[in-house]
Design goal:
843 residues, alpha+beta, Rossmann fold, Topoisomerase I, domain 2, Topoisomerase I, domain 3, 6 domains, 7-stranded antiparallel β-sheet, 4-stranded parallel β-sheet, 23 helices, 21% strand, globular
């Protein structure tokens, strides 16, 4: 019998069903070995030798694999078809060889792009050996990331208080976000105006035309800089009659986008479904392991011939022959490494729609996106007709232009269009039929004020797109890169856009000043190219590591020699143009606005960077690090109508807060956009909701250190949303206070979802809400739901995987202690009783 090893239990069950009794399929639960999280695991002095250790939570599973291998005819490594999958297979082969568990039939490797019966059986017939160049590329990447982390992070900890760590690729992604923040802060809005006329054609249909020519001169964007100029132009248009001088009809062909790659899937799922990169990849992983889509980590945009034909058949059945192009569409991309240029992400069965597969809501939405994109890629082009109409006044000195686009034949647009809208902003604006010489009637003329806008902050979609354009990271790493930046609190998401936190900004400034080469986009992209060369067999990974280390190690040693004060001074000088820009009136941009004779400079404290006066402690003026000049100081929202005092938003060591006079309140992150009205509500806290109908005592809503809460008769109840502070009424407050305190403990609350029977034990699997967050349980084992995962979207397969992973770890230390506790407690019962009141009193 063959022993087939895959990564996950869900994948194992599916494949074992395809192979029947001819094979036993076990899951490794991902990597079985890793580098110990301690310095010295990669030794540059010994040709970058790596010390691997078996992960503590994989030892039980690895023993099961080893025992099964000893009695198998051969071992088949069937991990994912990418660099990471190849590395997992390599680790497994190394461990089995070390434990002398390699059967007579040996160890071989297979890959398949889709978990279907045909794909798996075909792969079983074409085994190969582990691809060493791909493994070498993995080893090089792992060593680089390890060396940067364990060499650069200690420099940060010692020289930059409050900094956490720096990663090789994450630091470059962070720099993108920080640079965008700087661009926004340095941006100066520019005013401009436009004039638009509403005209009526001879047919009676109305249409809009904008002013493009004035005084015989073509207008550019800023030709009307102020209201007075715009009003004069509006009057000219209003006093003129216009004749159609030219009508231009232009046929436009729009072609469908190729099927999804990892990057484009993350971008579209963000735009159309509002999913984060990690959520997208987890859902796609579930669809892949269930056999519904092909492998979801890919740079390729091609589909195999059979898949193309099946997609064309679907188009024919649903939309008719006119929507099927004469020839199949073939897409290509310049892949640096042909071994990693897998097929695009597509359905394994084009006739299976989301509704027919019994998927969860999230899975169905993502599958539907994949299905539509893949099918649309084999549909006919859309035929559009773009019309441009120019109109001139009788003297030829004033001109208007109207544009519109009409869809003549929808083609692929009948099914799918890239982005959030099916057509461009001006598409679909149908113009009436106009002929040269026609004189439409002017209905009204209006002017409008505009301001140039700063570049927008990155969304997850636009950040992924930018990283892909620059060649930073790889599609399979984008989700983890973004998650690391969030976890380290270097960035935060506001209205689905990334905002650089102050600690992220100072880390970026530090790296730009002292390690500029290693956060350059071209350098990082070039290093990715060298890793691709390794995987293609065109470069030796040891040489790549040597080239990197020869410059990087001396650089870190030089920086480590500098004192924190020297680092602070260097950062102050480096950031001076940004933090203290010239004012334009000749005054010193570093002059303290409070005491007048002190000078401002950058300081880095325990709670992050800030700007301080040199006359401290006599002068205690400070302002936040973000922004520049006075604009970076307190933000005034307006005046309190009761006191007449200014209401300001400030930043302190514990975050942003609002203050007016002596009153202040922290600003909860879940309240959204802060305006004067909301700030006054915060300052008015605590709010008395009313008197409890049973006790007659007041119920008070307030904001505390750990968030919003209710207080009544000395008892507290946490509120889920900060908005409840101002909106919760008496009935809701009484019900909230009546909830038992133990309701959040495991097993005491109603399940969030019942997923079904466990495929092995038959026990009912539920999603529950516990003291430490949502978790899944089969009555015997409990496993936490990952933080980024919506507990209501957990599938049965995902729950089974989580439970299996938790069971593989064995009982926790905490449980072992708990079992021993009764003996100790019994022996020291009197002492425990005596100690309890003291503890309560001190609390």
């Amino acid at each position: 019998m063959d022993l087939v090893i895959v990564e996950s239990p869900a994948k194992a069950r599916t494949i074992e069903g395809y192979l029947g009794g001819n094979a036993k399929v076990l899951a490794s639960f991902g990597h079985v070995r890793d580098l110990p999280a301690s310095d010295g695991s990669v030794d540059p002095e010994q040709d970058f030798a790596m010390q691997w250790e078996v992960s503590a939570d994989r030892s039980k599973q690895l023993k099961a694999i080893t025992d099964a291998a000893k009695s198998a005819d051969r071992v088949i490594l069937a991990t994912d078809p990418d660099r990471e999958g190849e590395a997992i297979s390599w680790h497994l082969a190394e461990v089995l060889a070390a434990k002398k568990a390699v059967p007579k039939g040996g160890i071989s490797r297979i890959t398949f792009n889709a978990i279907t019966k045909d794909a798996v059986r075909t792969a079983m017939e074409h085994p190969r050996q582990v691809d060493q160049p791909l493994v070498d590329a993995y080893l090089a990447r792992r060593a680089l990331d390890y060396l940067v982390g364990f060499t650069l992070s200690p420099v940060l900890w010692r020289k930059l208080p409050g900094a956490k760590s720096a990663g090789r690729v994450q630091s470059v992604a962070l720099r993108l976000i920080v640079q965008r923040e700087r661009e926004i802060e340095a941006f100066t809005p520019r005013e401009f105006w436009s004039v638009e006329a509403l005209l009526k054609a001879a047919s009676g249909h109305q249409f809009a035309a904008r002013l493009t020519v004035l005084g015989g001169r073509k207008l550019d964007r800023f030709a009307l800089p102020d209201e007075a100029t715009a009003e004069a132009a509006r009057a000219v248009v209003e006093g003129s009659s216009f004749t159609v001088s030219e009508v231009e009809l232009k046929n436009v062909v729009r072609n469908p986008a190729p099927p999804f790659t990892t990057s484009t899937l993350q971008q579209e799922a963000s735009r159309k479904l509002g999913l984060g990169a990690q959520q997208t990849m987890r859902t796609a992983q579930t669809l892949y392991e269930a056999g519904h889509i092909t492998y979801m980590r890919t740079d390729g945009v091609s589909m195999d011939g059979d898949a193309i034909n099946r997609a064309r058949d679907v188009v024919m059945e649903r939309y008719g022959r006119e929507h099927v192009p004469d020839k199949p569409r073939h897409y290509s991309v310049k892949a640096k490494n042909a071994q990693e240029a897998h097929e695009a992400i597509r359905p394994t069965n084009f006739k299976a729609t989301a509704g027919a597969l019994g998927l969860s809501d999230m899975e169905a939405r993502l599958y539907d996106l994949v299905w539509k994109r893949a099918v649309a890629s084999q549909m006919a082009s859309a035929q559009l007709e773009r019309t441009t109409v120019d109109l001139l006044s009788h003297d030829g000195q004033t001109g208007l232009r109207a544009t519109g686009t009409v869809v003549v034949f929808p083609g692929f647009l009948a099914l799918y269009a890239e982005g959030t809208d099916d057509l461009d902003e001006e598409d679909g604006a149908r113009l009436p039929k106009l002929l040269a010489g026609e004189r439409p009637q002017t209905v009204k003329v209006e002017k409008a004020q505009h301001f140039t806008q700063p570049p927008p902050r990155y969304t997850e979609a636009s950040l992924v797109k930018r990283m892909e354009e620059l060649g930073i990271g790889r599609p399979s790493t984008y989700a983890s890169i973004i998650q690391v930046l969030k976890d380290r609190e270097y960035v935060r998401l506001e209205q689905k856009r990334f905002v650089a936190e102050e600690k992220g900004r100072i880390v970026t400034a530090f790296l730009e000043r002292f390690f500029d080469r290693y956060v350059e986009y071209d350098f990082t992209a070039g290093l990715e190219g060298r890793l691709d060369d390794i995987s293609a067999g065109d470069a030796a990974y040891i040489e790549v590591l040597r080239d990197f280390w020869e410059d990087f190690k001396p650089r870190t040693a030089d920086v480590m020699k500098q004192s924190p004060m020297e680092v602070e001074k260097a950062l102050d000088e480096y950031l001076a143009p940004h933090l203290f820009p010239e004012k334009g009136d000749g005054t010193d941009p570093r002059a303290c606005p409070s005491c007048g004779d002190g000078r401002l400079s950058l300081k880095v404290g325990k709670f992050g960077p800030f700007i301080s006066c040199s006359n401290y402690p006599e002068c205690r003026f400070t302002r936040q690090f973000a922004g520049n000049g006075d604009a970076a100081g307190p933000q005034t929202l307006g005046d309190d109508p009761e006191t007449g005092l200014a209401v300001e938003v400030k930043s302190g060591r514990f975050g942003r807060y609002v203050q007016s006079g002596e009153k202040r309140s922290s600003i909860p992150k879940d309240l959204g956009e802060l305006d004067l009205a909301l700030a006054l509500k915060l300052l008015s806290l605590p709010r008395e909701i009313g008197l409890h109908p049973e006790t007659g005592l007041p119920i008070v809503a307030n904001l505390g250190r750990y968030g919003p809460y209710l207080l009544h008769d000395g008892k507290y109840a946490n509120l889920k949303d900060s908005a409840d502070l101002f909106e919760m009424g008496m009935n809701a407050a009484v019900m909230k206070l009546a909830e038992p305190k133990g309701a959040a403990r495991r097993g005491s609350a109603e399940p969030l979802a019942v997923l079904g029977a466990h495929p092995e034990s038959g026990a009912e699997v539920k999603v529950l809400n516990g003291r430490f967050g949502p978790y899944v349980s089969d009555g015997t084992t409990n496993a936490n739901v990952p933080k980024a995962k919506d507990p209501k979207e957990v599938t049965l397969d995902e729950a089974v995987t989580l439970l299996a992973e938790r069971a593989a770890k064995g009982p926790s230390k905490g449980r072992a202690k708990k079992k021993a506790a009764p003996k100790k407690a019994a022996a020291k019962k009197p002492a425990a009783k005596k100690a309890a009141p003291k503890k309560k009193a001190s609390a």
